[in-house]
Amino acid sequence: TTSNDAASANIGTIGGTAAAFASAAASQAVADPNSQATRTSLVNQYNNVIDQIRTTAQDASFNGVNLLNGDQLKLVFNETGKSTLNITGVNFNPAGLGLGSLSVGTDFVDNAATNKVLASLNTASTTLRSQASALGSNLSIVQTRQDFSKSLINVLQTGSSNLTLADTNEEAANSQALSTRQSIAVSALSLANQSQQSVLQLLR
């Protein structure tokens, strides 16, 4: 669950920061439409938010997998490898969210330019919320399968007395290997989920 939770947490952070900036930008642009000094300040604030989004998305990696950087995560639910769940990562850096750095004197020079930036922020927030829902769904699936696997392991261990010593050792080894693989997979998915929430916070 660690990878999934980390991705969700980071998405929340990104969403909250960008949304706070959007609110400030809208009010200042309307209140003082002729002040280029105010607009210059807003450009600098916006670029700081973009930097935070970039670093937050980069920090969503767990066990070498970053679901907010386009990586793929394959979860294996049985010892044969036939029961799997493939999770496709997304690029939630500024470029992936359709957000780019602004330039003083070029961007935010009038209300039309400001509104265009605010529309991009709103679109990014919607995208982040949608992905947060998808990661949450995947996490539920993994947790359900992990609970099932634990129950199955208990059944196998209980019935091991009917097996030969060699067979018992083999079943125990298979069960332990499966449990370890699933624990790693759940941790990776949990981190992605937490990171995603952090990203969303930056846009709120």
UniProtKB/TrEMBL annotation:
InterPro entries: Flagellin_C. The keyword Glycosyltransferase does not apply. The keyword Isomerase does not apply. It comes from the Bacteria. Pfam families: Flagellin_C. Residues 120-203 form the Flagellin C-terminal domain. Keywords: Cell projection, Cilium, Flagellum. This is Flagellar protein. It comes from Candidatus Afipia apatlaquensis.
